[in-house]
Amino acid sequence: MAFDPQLADRVRSLLADADALTEKRMFGGIGWTIGGNMAAGAHNDGRLMIRCSKEDFEKLLSEPGVEGMRKGTRSLTGWLLIDSNAVADDGSLSRWVARGRAYAESLPKK
């Protein structure tokens, strides 16, 4: 499945005012970096992808529709996939994207 272009448009509009925002193809979808640090993405399976701190990772996994990303058998701590149903309304999407944005903005620019 390809990334959801409507989800990409919604995320793009939420991040449009971020400083040093870059949009690029990645993971078969589209990702947005702020200052070179991953913030959010429209994953190739239609879900929202968010970066978060390792400290918040376990807590956020307990939220509905959220799972950690994996590369093969390895868990990618700090990378979350959020089901489309969990971000169907604008308020939910905005909260998730704000988490990814805040994390990316907290890191040194690359």
Architecture overview:
There is one protein chain. With 110 residues, the protein is α+β, with helices and mostly antiparallel strands. The chain has one domain (5-106): Aspartate Aminotransferase, domain 1. The chain has 3 helices and 6 strands, in the order H-E-E-E-E-H-E-E-H. Strand 1 and strand 2 (29-34) form a beta hairpin. Helix 1 crosses helix 3. The longest helix has 17 residues, at 90-106. It is globular and about 30 Å long. The model has no long low-confidence stretch (mean pLDDT 95).
Topology:
Layout: H1 5-15, E1 21-26, E2 29-34, E3 37-42, E4 48-51, H2 54-61, E5 66-71, E6 74-82, H3 90-106
Antiparallel strand pairs: 1-2, 2-3, 3-4, 4-6, 5-6
Helix pairs in contact: 1-3
Which fold name is given in CATH as the topology? Aspartate Aminotransferase, domain 1
Number of domains: 1
**Overall helicity:** 25-40%
Element string (H = helix, E = strand): HEEEEHEEH
Sheet/helix structural class: alpha+beta
| Discrete helix count | 3
Give a quick set of tags describing it.
110 residues; alpha+beta; Aspartate Aminotransferase, domain 1; six-stranded antiparallel sheet
